[in-house]
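Quiz preparation item.
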């Protein structure tokens, strides 16, 4: 009986040692997820460079537009057993605006947002410093991007894709320089 107990005990130790790297890996994955979960106050702003795709209408061949800043509340929650490997859900409720959600992956202090399959509309100004509504445009966009965690702040670099019409001309987004700063709520 003593020999058998010793043999089984040795097998159990060998199995535990063999599985140790996997257990450590899973612990690191949980840490990646946990460091992002929580509620945040967020603000988004930035610039888009638009390229004219139609020949009719008025306007320049390229425009650089400033997004109207958006503020809101963000919640990041853990996702369990996602078939595509996403481990976080980022939901954003913009003040007086859209409600958005993204699946995301967290690893090594970085969060990567899945490009959303739905469209949303953002207001942009053409830089003429006029408050006239004729200098505003509505762009249909999809959003994705990455973020980096710094203590209690996540700095997202967002990628906007899509386009819209301005002064009877069609434009597409050629370059996106949009940031979202999310500060953890206490």
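Solution:
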């Amino acid at each position: 009986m003593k020999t058998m107990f010793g043999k089984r005990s040795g097998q159990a130790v060998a199995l535990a040692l063999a599985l140790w790297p996997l257990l450590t890996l899973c612990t690191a994955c949980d840490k990646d997820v946990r460091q992002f979960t929580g509620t945040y106050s967020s603000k988004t702003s930035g610039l888009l460079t638009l390229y004219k795709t139609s020949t009719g209408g008025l306007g320049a061949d390229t425009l650089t537009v400033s997004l109207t800043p958006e503020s809101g509340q963000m919640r990041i929650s853990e996702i369990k057993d996602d078939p595509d490997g996403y481990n976080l859900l980022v939901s954003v409720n913009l003040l007086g605006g859209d409600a958005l959600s993204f699946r995301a992956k967290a690893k090594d202090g970085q969060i990567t947002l899945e490009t959303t399959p739905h469209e949303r509309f953002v207001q942009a100004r053409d830089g003429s410093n006029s408050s006239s509504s004729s200098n505003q445009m509505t762009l249909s966009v999809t959003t994705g991007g990455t973020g980096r965690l710094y203590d209690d702040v996540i700095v997202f670099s967002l990628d906007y894709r899509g386009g819209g019409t301005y002064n009877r001309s069609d434009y597409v987004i050629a370059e996106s320089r949009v940031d979202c700063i999310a500060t953890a709520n206490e």
